[in-house]
Amino acid sequence: MEHAILGGLQGLTNGFLNLDWRTLVMLFLGCVLLWLGIKKGCEPLLLVPIGFGCILVNVPLSEVMGEEGFLRTIYNMGVANELFPLLIFIGIGAMTDFGPLLANPSTFLLGAAGQFGIFFTLAFALALGFPQLDAVAIGIIGACDGPTAIYVTAKYAPHLLGAVSVAAYSYMSLVPVIQPPIMKLLTTDRERKIIMPSMTGTVSKTTKLLFPLVITVIGGVIAPQGLPLLGTIMLGNLMRESGVVGRLTKASENEIANVVTLFLGLAIGGTMAGEAFLRAQTLIILCLGLFAICLDTVCGVCFGKLMKIFTGGKINPLIGAAGISAFPMSARVVQREGQRYNKKSYLLMHAMGANAGGQVGSVIAAAVMLSVLNGMGII
Question: Distance (Å, rounded) from C-alpha 242 to C-alpha 223?
Answer without folding.
Answer: 26
